[in-house]
């Protein structure tokens, strides 16, 4: 990409995603020398903007959200900004795409770009299909370089709508040129799961139902629906987080080692996991294994927050879930009998993404006869906000006669490797531009995930009496705790909460 350059077409350039994630990501790539001088960004949306106004918008977004700071006076900033152009365009109007073609050719001439084009759809999903057709009909796919389509989630509303969307897009783009974003796959520690699993002799041999009791995945957020009430009230936590991010994290934890580090080999292994998910058989089965909740008024970090139903653009009688927890089973040789407990919710007490692997306890042995608390070993991937790995083991209490204490080995990547690791969108944009689709979801993954989720949605649509309200700032409905208690487990605290039993941290005795 660096040699031949590329034009990034950002559809939805005046929107929230572009402002918070995409412009800052492009700026970081620029600052780190990952873009050559041969790049240009064409921002596209309906509202009028001059190039100067657009560059000011980009500056503000970088000032607020980028990890590299910019100064308007700096030559570097001015150089960067000169690569940005804006063109007002209504996606529903095919003639506008003929105009866009001319703009693209002019910009490519100006920066010496050889015809590579990356079309990023930061748009409402209902517009995805028509953009693909209009790109073709407007002649934007006629250059000699590559043409890639980056699509935001959600990819469809259910399996049939996802199939329709896919059919439309595939009329124009080949599967290998479609990059379906799941930004969790761009997170450093999610990518690290593979490495920790497959590059460490003391994990891989234990990574199966003989040694692992359960796996817990938590994606908790303190925010509510913010300005996205209209979208969210239709989607809910199941479609917004579980169908994509949550199930993708299950695949990273459960997949077999790929035969080669090739995108298709890795995605082949991930899709096998999705196909092995046990589908809930009936509405009763769903009710027994999937818990849904919706936040009511409550305090988060000492601040009173309104109920979900009082949020902007949300139906005041909405039955949409803002929390979902489930017991998921992966029916294959490695994972038979190991529950994956997953949960995600808005307005939780902390923002945290964590994966906890709980190992089976040692059989009754001489140490159990001693006074102490033998706890299961835990391996924790801390994805967000701090990045790191935490391992909990049992050890002798110093100075005692064999009393056992749980101790922690805590590798905090943010402290030890350095803060400021690339944001997910930086990695994913860079990968899309260089043609690496490893951390994008292939169509068969999307389809299998919908197949699993559709059973839940269908059961929920029949009867909503199981929707439980939870106060904002709590950990969600109690039924989610019972889900684990019935199996003799409990949720492990996230973000290092309740670590009073930990005596060693970062390898030092405290
Ligand atoms: N925001 C986020 O945090 C996340 C967003 N996403 C996904 O990213 C996508 C974009 O989300 P977000 O940025 O929040 O949405 P916004 O509503 O903030 O932005 C939508 C953009 O689309 C443009 N647009 C709407 N209709 C048209 C049209 N007919 N022709 C041209 N442009 C149009 C709007 O500009 P204008 O009105 O000027 O035309 C605006 O720039 C969605 O698919 C969303 O699900 C995914 C994960 C997180
Ligand atoms: O895709 C989405 O993700 C965000 C949470 O992302 P994170 O990187 O901050 O953990 C969520 O708020 C949003 O509802 C959802 O659409």
TrEMBL record:
Superkingdom field: Bacteria
Domain Glucose-6-phosphate dehydrogenase NAD-binding: 10-192
Top-rank EC class of the record's enzyme: oxidoreductase
Keywords (A to Z) from UniProt: Carbohydrate metabolism, Glucose metabolism, NADP, Oxidoreductase
Cellular component terms (Gene Ontology): cytosol
E.C. designation(s): 1.1.1.49
GO MF term (any one): glucose-6-phosphate dehydrogenase activity
Record-annotated active site: 245
Keyword Oxidoreductase carried by entry: yes
Binding site for substrate: 183, 187, 221, 240, 346, 351
GO BP of this protein: glucose metabolic process; pentose-phosphate shunt, oxidative branch
Domain Glucose-6-phosphate dehydrogenase C-terminal: 195-492
Binding site for NADP(+): 12-19, 46, 90-91, 153
InterPro entries to which the protein is assigned, alphabetical: G6P_DH (IPR001282), G6P_DH_AS (IPR019796), G6P_DH_C (IPR022675), G6P_DH_NAD-bd (IPR022674), NAD(P)-bd_dom_sf (IPR036291)
SUPFAM superfamilies from the UniProt entry: Glyceraldehyde-3-phosphate dehydrogenase-like, C-terminal domain, NAD(P)-binding Rossmann-fold domains
Signal peptide: none
Pathway membership: Carbohydrate degradation; pentose phosphate pathway; D-ribulose 5-phosphate from D-glucose 6-phosphate (oxidative stage): step 1/3
Catalytic activity: D-glucose 6-phosphate + NADP(+) = 6-phospho-D-glucono-1,5-lactone + NADPH + H(+)
Function per UniProt: Catalyzes the oxidation of glucose 6-phosphate to 6-phosphogluconolactone.
Family: Belongs to the glucose-6-phosphate dehydrogenase family.
Protein name: Glucose-6-phosphate 1-dehydrogenase
Species, as recorded: Paenibacillus contaminans
Source lineage: Bacteria, Bacillati, Bacillota, Bacilli, Bacillales
Gene: zwf
